[in-house]
Amino acid sequence: MSELLESLWQHDTAFRSDLFAGKVALVCGGGSGIGRATAVLFARLGATVVITGRTQEKLDAVVDFAVKKGARMHGFAAQLREHEQVVTLFEKIEAEVGVPDLLVNSAGGQFPQDAIDLSPKGWNAVITNNLNNTWFVMQRAAQRWRDLKRGGSIVNVIVVLERGMPGVAHTQAARAGIVGAMRTVAVEWAPLGIRVNCVAPGLTASEGLDVYPPEAVAEFPLANPFKRPGTPMEIAESCVFLSAPAASFITGETLTVDGGGKLWGELWLAGRPEWYRTP
Ligand SMILES: CCCCC/C=C/C(=O)SCCNC(=O)CCNC(=O)[C@H](O)C(C)(C)COP(=O)(O)OP(=O)(O)OC[C@H]1O[C@@H](n2cnc3c(N)ncnc32)[C@H](O)[C@@H]1OP(=O)(O)O
Ligand SMILES: NC(=O)C1=CN([C@@H]2O[C@H](COP(=O)(O)OP(=O)(O)OC[C@H]3O[C@@H](n4cnc5c(N)ncnc54)[C@H](OP(=O)(O)O)[C@@H]3O)[C@@H](O)[C@H]2O)C=CC1
């Protein structure tokens, strides 16, 4: 783990080292994968960072590393599907750290299953985990910014929607909901000085891939024309760009970071069905 964190810390970046000095960044899902890379990058660029997720130990490992590097980072556990926990989380952050200026929502996940077999409980679990949690957090941030008469930036990490994604219909539906909400509030919240954007990663080498069956994993190199997964830092750089002043005129937009997977590639997350095998 410390090797991985060290490589994130050393990774080349185009951004200025004091870009976010004086800012507080909240990264949901910051204990692993894309969220962890984003949190580490914010910390390297001078932000005070708060990471959240359900598992305190995962958060502590990232916080301990960052603090040893001289960065300012805090880890507060929360179940973001529960609105009350989101409200309490914001109260705790404001009391102990300060009001976040920047929000990156990278908390989420799903399991692979053919859509025809999804149970109502499984559908609801994934919708709640990817639509409700993101919405609760972005709305709470916006409410606090409105109350305090200050703006902010929100970046939601979603999935690529253009071609559908066999094996994860539930998550596609949830993320499409986020895009609809994002485009709507980009207009409603512009007068409040709030920008809202999404980053849509392609296949990315994170712990999150551990839930996919071996036959799906074996074909992951077919997901895009580079024939490799992206790295969490390749996604993090886009999250940070959209949070930065360099993106001050960008709102309601989705930035796809998928190595061209939208244009060429195949991804069968629950395994390739017989019909789509070559004869
Ligand atoms: C462009 C490329 C994109 C593709 C690659 C994408 C990769 C990633 O997104 S990686 C990132 C994310 N990380 C994860 O996905 C983490 C793993 N997933 C989960 O934690 C769960 O899937 C969860 C999101 C559903 C967790 O919700 P929770 O409410 O805790 O779920 P339960 O375990 O209680 O299950 C509720 C219900 O859901 C059904 N179900 C859950 N897992 C499976 C499964 N593996 N297969 C089939 N059905 C599943 C099931 O109905 C569960 O109820 P019970 O039957 O009563 O257990
Ligand atoms: N890796 C990939 O190929 C791709 C990933 N994505 C999306 O990007 C996002 C980040 O994924 P990635 O970093 O790869 O995967 P990870 O599983 O590593 O990251 C997801 C993080 O979200 C946290 N989390 C999940 N559900 C909740 C919840 N209800 N409340 C609080 N925290 C939660 C998890 O922590 P904990 O379990 O401790 O709560 C975990 O740290 C996800 O939305 C994912 O679906 C999109 C496209 C491709």
UniProtKB/TrEMBL annotation:
<comment type="pathway">
    <text>Lipid metabolism.</text>
</comment>
<dbReference type="GO" id="GO:0006633">
    <property type="term" value="P:fatty acid biosynthetic process"/>
</dbReference>
<comment type="function">
    <text>Participates in chain elongation of fatty acids. Catalyzes the reduction of trans-2-enoyl-CoAs of varying chain lengths from 6:1 to 16:1, having maximum activity with 10:1 CoA. Has no 2,4-dienoyl-CoA reductase activity.</text>
</comment>
<keyword id="KW-0597">Phosphoprotein</keyword>
<dbReference type="GO" id="GO:0019166">
    <property type="term" value="F:trans-2-enoyl-CoA reductase (NADPH) activity"/>
</dbReference>
<keyword id="KW-0576">Peroxisome</keyword>
<keyword id="KW-0276">Fatty acid metabolism</keyword>
<comment type="similarity">
    <text>Belongs to the short-chain dehydrogenases/reductases (SDR) family.</text>
</comment>
<keyword id="KW-0560">Oxidoreductase</keyword>
<keyword id="KW-0521">NADP</keyword>
<dbReference type="InterPro" id="IPR002347">
    <property type="entry name" value="SDR_fam"/>
</dbReference>
<protein>
    <recommendedName>
        <fullName>Peroxisomal trans-2-enoyl-CoA reductase</fullName>
        <ecNumber>1.3.1.38</ecNumber>
    </recommendedName>
</protein>
<keyword id="KW-0444">Lipid biosynthesis</keyword>
<dbReference type="Pfam" id="PF13561">
    <property type="entry name" value="adh_short_C2"/>
</dbReference>
<comment type="subunit">
    <text>Interacts with PEX5, probably required to target it into peroxisomes.</text>
</comment>
<keyword id="KW-0275">Fatty acid biosynthesis</keyword>
<keyword id="KW-0443">Lipid metabolism</keyword>
<dbReference type="InterPro" id="IPR036291">
    <property type="entry name" value="NAD(P)-bd_dom_sf"/>
</dbReference>
<dbReference type="InterPro" id="IPR052388">
    <property type="entry name" value="Peroxisomal_t2-enoyl-CoA_red"/>
</dbReference>
